[in-house]
Design brief:
This protein has 11 helices and 20 strands. The protein is 35% helix and 34% strand. It is globular. With 407 residues, the protein is α+β, with helices and mostly antiparallel strands. The protein has helices spanning 14-24, 28-36, 78-91, 96-117, 132-148, 179-185, 204-211, 273-285, 313-327, 377-387, 391-406, and strands at 2-6, 45-57, 60-71, 76-77, 125-126, 154-157, 160-161, 166-169, 172-175, 192-193, 216-217, 224-233, 244-252, 257-268, 290-297, 303-311, 333-341, 344-353, 356-367, 370-375. The two termini are 27 Å apart. It folds into 3 domains: 2-255, no CATH class; 258-341, 2-Layer Sandwich (Alpha-Beta Plaits); 344-406, Ubiquitin-like (UB roll) (Roll). α6 runs parallel beside α7 (204-211). The chain has a 5-stranded mixed sheet.
Length: 407
């Protein structure tokens, strides 16, 4: 199964995502009852009315959150909101995945504020996010995701519209997207784009929920059979478009997994083979997915080596540092790419050979109903050295043992 979150037009907020999940089929009564039972964890906040209604936004029927609250508070410590969320999830009948998700969302929000304002996470104070709205959005979404069993499914996010112009908040006026949204989405693997209005389309709460749901971004829908669609309405209304978040759930029809990677490339023409060999080992040890070196000819007939590194957002900057420090290159080209991979799982097995137990790792891949496995080469090398046997001979012995186990 696959789920596509589509904030390309209207962006995303916490209540829009919650409403789209209700529209997709999440149990409305269960969510309302759950939220009602946790308002006690935020003193000085009272929910007067809570419901979900059908509305039309520019001809699109969608679900809207009806919420009336009474609050006598203008700021709260981030740690207080976090405690309220942890206390809330502990009394609700939620899976461990849902509890972890809810806590991770508020952690992301706290960490972003900490970095922006240069204060410790314990000192972070929320202003806009201090309302019980934040608790309702995060916990309500956790309940809905659990109810729909979405934590076990692949979730893809389309490019996120953030809008433009300026945004007014507790510290004054700043350009949109706000710093918190940018900080949250930084290195997330998710793509952003402007939008059709000079207004805030994506909120910090919406952003922090997204990055804890998915790191898969795509400009196109995957090949899928559509099972259900949910439309969640935002509170604002715009003349040019429907302020509606769309979620599509279906069955993926291809045989591949998909992720987003960065490709780092640089040409070096004054580095020895020994340094390049060491570079490959160091690059892989720093979290690269793959590295290749190609021989070529550049300007004025100069022989060169093109170093190409595939990595994710988390490791990109560290790998760029390694490339520069190890080769002395003065520039690195960076491109982003969608990568389709054959689904695989990693397994461990204990094999006894010549009276010695060896831990062996291997990957099982599945394509069009057929499975195959590949043994981790480093484990084969270790076993070959220990038994003083050629790697080919060792591989045959290990393969036979794994085949017995898999069959």
């Amino acid at each position: 199964m696959v789920v596509v979150i589509d904030p390309q037009i209207a962006g995303i907020s916490g209540d829009m995502l919650l409403c789209s999940l209700v529209d997709l089929g999440a149990n409305k009564a269960k969510i309302i009852e759950g939220i009602r039972s946790i308002e006690k964890f935020l003193p000085n906040s009272k929910i007067l009315n809570l419901d979900f209604n059908k509305v039309k936004k520019h001809g699109i029927e969608s679900t809207e959150l009806v919420l009336d609250i009474s609050e006598d508070v203008h700021e709260r410590k981030g740690s207080d909101i976090k405690k309220a969320i942890i206390d809330s999830t502990s009394v609700l009948d939620l899976s461990e995945q849902a509890k972890t998700f809810a806590e991770s969302c508020i952690d992301t929000l706290i960490t972003s504020e900490s970095k922006i304002h240069g204060v410790s996470e314990d000192s972070v104070h929320f202003h806009e996010a201090s309302s019980i709205d934040t608790l309702i959005d995060i916990v309500g979404i956790a309940i809905a995701l659990d109810d729909l069993a979405l934590f076990s499914e692949k979730i893809i996010c389309m490019p996120i519209s953030v809008g433009g112009g300026t945004v007014k908040f507790s510290h004054g006026i700043m350009s949109n997207p706000a710093s918190a949204v940018l900080e949250i989405l930084k290195n997330s693997g998710l793509l952003i784009q402007g939008g059709q209005v000079k207004d805030e389309l994506t909120t910090p709460t919406g952003a922090c929920i997204l990055v804890n749901l998915s790191n898969l971004s795509s400009e196109f829908y995957p090949k899928m059979a559509i099972n259900s669609i949910g439309y969640g309405s935002g509170r604002k209304s715009f003349e040019a478009f429907s302020n509606v978040l769309k979620i599509v759930r279906g069955t993926e029809q291809n045989h591949f997994d998909m992720d987003n990677v960065h490709v780092l490339e640089t040409n070096v023409d004054d580095v020895s083979g020994e340094i390049l060999g060491n570079l490959i080992e160091k690059i892989m040890s720093k979290g690269a997915k793959d590295v290749s070196i190609y021989h070529g000819i550049t300007k004025k007939g100069r022989p060169t080596n093109l170093v190409s590194v595939i990595c994710d957002s988390t490791h990109m900057h560290e790998l760029m540092d390694v490339l520069i420090s190890e080769t002395g290159t003065l520039g690195i080209r960076v491109s982003s790419s969608e990568r389709f991979t054959v689904p695989r799982t990693t397994k461990d097995i204990t094999i006894r050979l010549e009276g010695i137990d060896f831990e062996i790792r291997y990957k099982i891949s599945t394509f069009k109903g057929k499975s195959d496995f590949k043994i981790e080469f480093d484990d084969l090398k270790r076993l070959s050295d220990a038994l003083d046997k050629p790697i080919k001979q060792v591989e045959l012995l290990v393969r036979k043992e794994i085949e017995k186990h898999e069959v």
